[in-house]
TrEMBL record:
CDD domains: ASADH_C_bac_euk_like, VcASADH2_like_N. Signal peptide: none annotated. This is Aspartate-semialdehyde dehydrogenase. Homodimer. It comes from Cognatilysobacter lacus. Its EC number is 1.2.1.11. The gene is asd. Keywords: Amino-acid biosynthesis, Diaminopimelate biosynthesis, Lysine biosynthesis, Methionine biosynthesis, NADP, Oxidoreductase, Threonine biosynthesis. GO terms for biological process: 'de novo' L-methionine biosynthetic process; diaminopimelate biosynthetic process; isoleucine biosynthetic process; lysine biosynthetic process via diaminopimelate; threonine biosynthetic process.
Length: 335
Protein backbone atom coordinates (compact mmCIF):
# COMPACT_ATOMS: atom_id res chain seq x y z
CA UNK A 1 0.00 0.00 0.00
CA UNK A 2 1.22 3.52 -0.72
CA UNK A 3 2.81 5.17 2.31
CA UNK A 4 2.24 8.87 2.93
CA UNK A 5 5.65 10.36 3.72
CA UNK A 6 6.72 13.73 5.11
CA UNK A 7 10.33 14.93 5.06
CA UNK A 8 10.94 17.69 7.60
CA UNK A 9 14.10 19.57 6.64
CA UNK A 10 13.66 18.65 2.98
CA UNK A 11 16.06 21.31 1.67
CA UNK A 12 19.00 20.35 3.93
CA UNK A 13 21.89 18.09 2.93
CA UNK A 14 20.34 15.09 4.74
CA UNK A 15 16.75 15.84 3.68
CA UNK A 16 17.73 15.99 0.04
CA UNK A 17 19.56 12.67 0.37
CA UNK A 18 16.57 11.07 2.12
CA UNK A 19 14.53 11.93 -0.97
CA UNK A 20 17.20 10.46 -3.25
CA UNK A 21 17.39 7.24 -1.20
CA UNK A 22 13.58 6.86 -1.15
CA UNK A 23 13.65 6.98 -4.94
CA UNK A 24 16.69 4.71 -5.31
CA UNK A 25 15.12 2.05 -3.07
CA UNK A 26 11.72 2.44 -4.69
CA UNK A 27 10.06 3.08 -1.33
CA UNK A 28 6.25 2.85 -1.89
CA UNK A 29 5.61 6.58 -1.50
CA UNK A 30 1.96 7.68 -1.74
CA UNK A 31 1.58 11.36 -0.82
CA UNK A 32 4.92 13.14 -0.35
CA UNK A 33 5.13 16.29 1.78
CA UNK A 34 8.39 18.25 1.66
CA UNK A 35 8.52 20.53 4.67
CA UNK A 36 10.96 23.21 5.72
CA UNK A 37 11.10 26.64 7.29
CA UNK A 38 9.01 29.46 5.81
CA UNK A 39 12.27 30.78 4.29
CA UNK A 40 12.59 27.64 2.14
CA UNK A 41 8.89 27.20 1.35
CA UNK A 42 8.13 27.35 -2.36
CA UNK A 43 11.41 25.76 -3.47
CA UNK A 44 10.80 23.24 -6.25
CA UNK A 45 11.95 19.57 -5.92
CA UNK A 46 11.58 16.69 -8.40
CA UNK A 47 10.70 13.21 -7.10
CA UNK A 48 10.20 10.35 -9.58
CA UNK A 49 9.40 12.93 -12.25
CA UNK A 50 6.87 14.68 -9.99
CA UNK A 51 7.48 18.41 -9.46
CA UNK A 52 6.76 19.25 -5.83
CA UNK A 53 6.92 22.51 -3.90
CA UNK A 54 8.45 22.68 -0.44
CA UNK A 55 5.80 23.66 2.12
CA UNK A 56 6.04 25.66 5.34
CA UNK A 57 6.26 23.26 8.30
CA UNK A 58 4.65 25.75 10.67
CA UNK A 59 1.32 25.75 8.82
CA UNK A 60 1.28 22.07 7.77
CA UNK A 61 -1.40 19.68 9.07
CA UNK A 62 0.24 16.26 9.71
CA UNK A 63 -3.06 14.32 9.61
CA UNK A 64 -2.73 11.39 7.20
CA UNK A 65 1.06 11.21 7.28
CA UNK A 66 2.24 7.63 7.88
CA UNK A 67 6.01 8.14 8.11
CA UNK A 68 7.73 11.42 8.99
CA UNK A 69 11.50 11.67 8.45
CA UNK A 70 12.98 14.56 10.45
CA UNK A 71 16.35 16.18 9.84
CA UNK A 72 15.95 19.84 10.70
CA UNK A 73 17.78 20.15 14.03
CA UNK A 74 16.84 19.32 17.59
CA UNK A 75 14.62 22.33 18.25
CA UNK A 76 12.37 21.58 15.27
CA UNK A 77 12.17 17.91 16.28
CA UNK A 78 11.32 18.75 19.88
CA UNK A 79 8.48 21.04 18.76
CA UNK A 80 7.03 19.10 15.82
CA UNK A 81 7.86 15.38 16.24
CA UNK A 82 5.29 14.92 19.06
CA UNK A 83 2.64 16.68 16.91
CA UNK A 84 3.27 14.36 13.95
CA UNK A 85 3.23 11.32 16.27
CA UNK A 86 -0.01 12.49 17.88
CA UNK A 87 -1.52 12.74 14.38
CA UNK A 88 -0.65 9.07 13.81
CA UNK A 89 2.69 9.25 12.01
CA UNK A 90 5.72 7.16 12.95
CA UNK A 91 8.51 9.70 13.35
CA UNK A 92 12.10 8.76 12.46
CA UNK A 93 14.20 11.58 13.87
CA UNK A 94 17.78 12.23 12.76
CA UNK A 95 18.38 14.91 15.41
CA UNK A 96 19.83 14.26 18.86
CA UNK A 97 16.61 15.48 20.56
CA UNK A 98 15.28 12.08 21.72
CA UNK A 99 18.25 9.69 21.36
CA UNK A 100 18.85 9.38 25.12
CA UNK A 101 15.16 9.08 26.10
CA UNK A 102 14.49 5.62 27.58
CA UNK A 103 11.13 5.42 25.77
CA UNK A 104 12.60 6.21 22.34
CA UNK A 105 14.46 3.40 20.54
CA UNK A 106 17.85 4.29 19.01
CA UNK A 107 18.31 2.01 16.01
CA UNK A 108 20.98 1.03 13.47
CA UNK A 109 19.16 -1.04 10.84
CA UNK A 110 21.77 -3.81 10.69
CA UNK A 111 22.52 -3.85 14.41
CA UNK A 112 19.37 -3.65 16.57
CA UNK A 113 16.37 -3.54 14.20
CA UNK A 114 13.98 -5.20 16.65
CA UNK A 115 14.39 -2.29 19.07
CA UNK A 116 12.19 -0.09 16.86
CA UNK A 117 9.12 -2.24 17.53
CA UNK A 118 8.78 -0.71 21.01
CA UNK A 119 8.07 2.99 20.37
CA UNK A 120 5.51 4.19 22.93
CA UNK A 121 5.84 7.80 21.75
CA UNK A 122 5.68 6.97 18.06
CA UNK A 123 9.23 8.29 17.71
CA UNK A 124 12.34 6.35 16.63
CA UNK A 125 15.74 8.04 16.93
CA UNK A 126 18.36 7.76 14.19
CA UNK A 127 21.87 7.63 15.75
CA UNK A 128 24.55 10.21 15.09
CA UNK A 129 26.52 9.58 11.90
CA UNK A 130 29.81 8.77 13.65
CA UNK A 131 28.02 6.29 15.95
CA UNK A 132 26.15 4.74 13.01
CA UNK A 133 29.27 3.61 11.17
CA UNK A 134 31.10 2.61 14.36
CA UNK A 135 28.26 0.35 15.53
CA UNK A 136 27.78 -1.24 12.10
CA UNK A 137 31.44 -2.28 12.19
CA UNK A 138 31.75 -3.21 15.88
CA UNK A 139 28.45 -5.00 16.62
CA UNK A 140 29.53 -8.32 15.04
CA UNK A 141 32.78 -8.26 17.04
CA UNK A 142 30.95 -7.31 20.23
CA UNK A 143 28.57 -10.24 19.85
CA UNK A 144 31.42 -12.71 19.48
CA UNK A 145 34.14 -11.38 21.79
CA UNK A 146 32.46 -8.84 24.11
CA UNK A 147 33.85 -5.32 23.72
CA UNK A 148 34.92 -3.83 27.04
CA UNK A 149 36.55 -0.59 25.87
CA UNK A 150 36.64 1.53 22.72
CA UNK A 151 39.22 4.22 22.01
CA UNK A 152 38.18 6.08 18.87
CA UNK A 153 39.44 9.16 17.04
CA UNK A 154 37.08 10.38 14.35
CA UNK A 155 38.03 12.43 11.27
CA UNK A 156 34.71 14.02 10.37
CA UNK A 157 33.92 15.71 7.06
CA UNK A 158 32.48 19.21 6.91
CA UNK A 159 29.18 18.01 5.39
CA UNK A 160 28.38 16.80 8.90
CA UNK A 161 28.10 20.44 9.90
CA UNK A 162 25.90 21.27 6.93
CA UNK A 163 25.69 23.18 3.67
CA UNK A 164 27.38 26.38 4.94
CA UNK A 165 30.39 24.34 6.10
CA UNK A 166 30.70 22.70 2.67
CA UNK A 167 30.73 26.19 1.15
CA UNK A 168 33.25 27.41 3.74
CA UNK A 169 35.74 24.66 2.92
CA UNK A 170 35.48 25.37 -0.80
CA UNK A 171 35.76 29.12 -0.36
CA UNK A 172 38.71 28.93 2.07
CA UNK A 173 40.57 26.45 -0.14
CA UNK A 174 40.28 28.81 -3.11
CA UNK A 175 41.25 31.79 -0.92
CA UNK A 176 44.36 30.02 0.36
CA UNK A 177 45.45 29.06 -3.15
CA UNK A 178 45.10 32.73 -4.10
CA UNK A 179 47.03 33.96 -1.05
CA UNK A 180 43.87 35.59 0.38
CA UNK A 181 42.49 35.65 3.97
CA UNK A 182 40.46 32.43 4.63
CA UNK A 183 38.08 34.32 7.01
CA UNK A 184 36.61 31.50 9.21
CA UNK A 185 32.83 31.88 9.76
CA UNK A 186 31.26 28.44 10.42
CA UNK A 187 34.22 27.01 12.34
CA UNK A 188 36.19 28.82 15.07
CA UNK A 189 39.38 28.54 13.03
CA UNK A 190 40.37 27.89 9.43
CA UNK A 191 39.38 24.39 8.22
CA UNK A 192 41.08 24.43 4.80
CA UNK A 193 44.48 22.64 5.02
CA UNK A 194 43.87 22.28 8.78
CA UNK A 195 42.31 19.93 11.37
CA UNK A 196 40.08 21.10 14.26
CA UNK A 197 39.82 18.99 17.48
CA UNK A 198 36.23 20.03 18.17
CA UNK A 199 32.78 18.72 17.22
CA UNK A 200 29.77 20.44 18.77
CA UNK A 201 30.14 22.26 22.13
CA UNK A 202 32.55 21.77 25.03
CA UNK A 203 31.16 20.12 28.20
CA UNK A 204 32.35 20.33 31.81
CA UNK A 205 34.30 17.05 31.57
CA UNK A 206 36.51 18.45 28.80
CA UNK A 207 34.86 16.40 26.10
CA UNK A 208 32.57 17.82 23.38
CA UNK A 209 28.90 17.06 22.73
CA UNK A 210 29.81 15.27 19.51
CA UNK A 211 32.27 13.07 21.48
CA UNK A 212 29.81 12.22 24.24
CA UNK A 213 27.24 11.09 21.62
CA UNK A 214 29.64 8.24 20.83
CA UNK A 215 29.68 7.23 24.51
CA UNK A 216 25.96 7.40 25.23
CA UNK A 217 24.71 6.04 21.92
CA UNK A 218 27.16 3.11 21.81
CA UNK A 219 25.97 1.86 25.22
CA UNK A 220 22.29 2.22 24.28
CA UNK A 221 22.56 0.56 20.85
CA UNK A 222 24.67 -2.37 22.10
CA UNK A 223 22.57 -2.57 25.26
CA UNK A 224 25.56 -2.57 27.57
CA UNK A 225 26.11 0.35 29.95
CA UNK A 226 29.45 -1.14 31.07
CA UNK A 227 31.22 -0.48 27.77
CA UNK A 228 33.93 2.15 28.25
CA UNK A 229 34.28 4.61 25.35
CA UNK A 230 37.03 7.22 24.99
CA UNK A 231 36.35 9.42 21.93
CA UNK A 232 38.17 12.27 20.23
CA UNK A 233 36.29 14.06 17.44
CA UNK A 234 38.31 15.93 14.82
CA UNK A 235 36.94 17.98 11.92
CA UNK A 236 38.99 17.55 8.75
CA UNK A 237 39.00 19.29 5.35
CA UNK A 238 37.01 16.55 3.60
CA UNK A 239 33.64 17.22 1.93
CA UNK A 240 31.87 13.86 2.38
CA UNK A 241 32.77 10.82 4.49
CA UNK A 242 33.73 10.32 8.13
CA UNK A 243 36.74 8.18 9.02
CA UNK A 244 37.48 6.60 12.40
CA UNK A 245 40.63 5.11 13.92
CA UNK A 246 39.23 2.51 16.31
CA UNK A 247 41.04 0.62 19.08
CA UNK A 248 38.98 -1.89 21.05
CA UNK A 249 39.69 -4.18 24.01
CA UNK A 250 37.60 -7.34 24.18
CA UNK A 251 36.68 -9.80 26.94
CA UNK A 252 37.81 -12.73 24.82
CA UNK A 253 40.82 -12.62 22.50
CA UNK A 254 39.85 -12.22 18.83
CA UNK A 255 42.42 -12.48 16.06
CA UNK A 256 42.59 -10.09 13.11
CA UNK A 257 41.79 -13.01 10.81
CA UNK A 258 38.66 -13.88 12.76
CA UNK A 259 37.58 -10.24 12.93
CA UNK A 260 38.08 -9.93 9.17
CA UNK A 261 36.05 -13.10 8.60
CA UNK A 262 33.21 -11.80 10.80
CA UNK A 263 33.18 -8.42 9.06
CA UNK A 264 33.22 -9.92 5.58
CA UNK A 265 29.80 -11.47 6.32
CA UNK A 266 28.47 -8.57 8.40
CA UNK A 267 25.40 -6.75 6.96
CA UNK A 268 26.13 -3.24 5.67
CA UNK A 269 29.91 -3.73 5.85
CA UNK A 270 32.50 -3.95 3.10
CA UNK A 271 36.03 -5.02 4.08
CA UNK A 272 38.90 -3.31 2.24
CA UNK A 273 41.90 -4.69 4.07
CA UNK A 274 45.02 -5.51 2.10
CA UNK A 275 48.43 -4.76 3.61
CA UNK A 276 49.69 -2.86 0.57
CA UNK A 277 49.72 0.72 -0.79
CA UNK A 278 46.12 1.85 -1.14
CA UNK A 279 44.75 -1.39 0.39
CA UNK A 280 42.36 0.45 2.70
CA UNK A 281 39.15 2.53 2.43
CA UNK A 282 39.14 6.34 2.29
CA UNK A 283 36.32 8.89 1.94
CA UNK A 284 37.37 9.79 -1.62
CA UNK A 285 38.16 6.33 -3.00
CA UNK A 286 35.33 4.41 -1.33
CA UNK A 287 32.80 6.06 0.97
CA UNK A 288 31.58 9.28 -0.61
CA UNK A 289 28.23 8.69 -2.31
CA UNK A 290 28.06 4.97 -1.39
CA UNK A 291 26.09 2.95 1.16
CA UNK A 292 28.47 0.48 2.84
CA UNK A 293 30.47 1.01 6.00
CA UNK A 294 34.02 0.23 4.89
CA UNK A 295 36.53 -1.41 7.26
CA UNK A 296 40.28 -1.79 6.80
CA UNK A 297 43.62 -1.72 8.63
CA UNK A 298 42.42 -4.64 10.77
CA UNK A 299 45.28 -5.66 13.08
CA UNK A 300 45.90 -7.02 16.53
CA UNK A 301 46.97 -4.33 19.00
CA UNK A 302 50.70 -4.73 19.73
CA UNK A 303 50.20 -2.93 23.05
CA UNK A 304 47.39 -5.08 24.47
CA UNK A 305 46.82 -8.89 24.57
CA UNK A 306 43.09 -8.57 23.79
CA UNK A 307 43.27 -5.44 21.69
CA UNK A 308 42.22 -4.97 18.05
CA UNK A 309 42.62 -1.89 15.83
CA UNK A 310 40.64 -1.04 12.70
CA UNK A 311 39.83 1.83 10.34
CA UNK A 312 36.16 2.58 9.62
CA UNK A 313 34.94 4.87 6.81
CA UNK A 314 31.42 5.72 5.63
CA UNK A 315 29.43 8.44 3.90
CA UNK A 316 28.08 10.43 6.87
CA UNK A 317 25.12 11.81 4.89
CA UNK A 318 24.05 8.45 3.42
CA UNK A 319 24.59 5.58 5.88
CA UNK A 320 25.35 8.12 8.58
CA UNK A 321 21.88 9.64 8.30
CA UNK A 322 19.56 9.40 5.27
CA UNK A 323 20.01 5.73 4.31
CA UNK A 324 19.57 4.42 7.85
CA UNK A 325 16.45 6.57 8.31
CA UNK A 326 14.92 5.08 5.15
CA UNK A 327 15.97 1.57 6.21
CA UNK A 328 14.11 2.13 9.51
CA UNK A 329 11.05 3.33 7.55
CA UNK A 330 11.23 0.10 5.50
CA UNK A 331 11.30 -1.92 8.73
CA UNK A 332 8.27 -0.01 10.07
CA UNK A 333 6.10 -0.58 7.00
CA UNK A 334 7.14 -4.24 6.89
CA UNK A 335 5.69 -4.83 10.40
C1 LIG B 1 28.70 16.33 12.67
N1 LIG B 1 27.59 14.34 13.45
O1 LIG B 1 29.39 15.66 11.89
C2 LIG B 1 27.44 15.76 13.23
C3 LIG B 1 26.28 16.03 12.33
N2 LIG B 1 25.11 15.44 12.83
O2 LIG B 1 28.96 17.50 12.98
Amino acid sequence: NPVNVAIVGATGAVGETMLKVLEERDFPVGELHLLASERSAGAKVVFKGRHLAVKDLATFDPAGVDIALFSAGGDVSKEFAPKFAAAGAVVIDNSSAFRRDADVPLVVAEVNPDALRVRPRGIIANPNCSTMQLMTALAPIHREAGIQRINVATYQSVSGTGRRALEELGRQTAAMLNFQDPKPEVYPVQIAFNVIPQGGDFLDNGYTSEEMKLVWETRKILGDESIQVNPTVVRVPVFYGHSEAVHIETRDKITAARARQLLESAPGVEVVDERRDGGYPTPVTHASGNDPVYVGRIREDISHPRGLSLWVVADNIRKGAALNAVQLAELVIAE
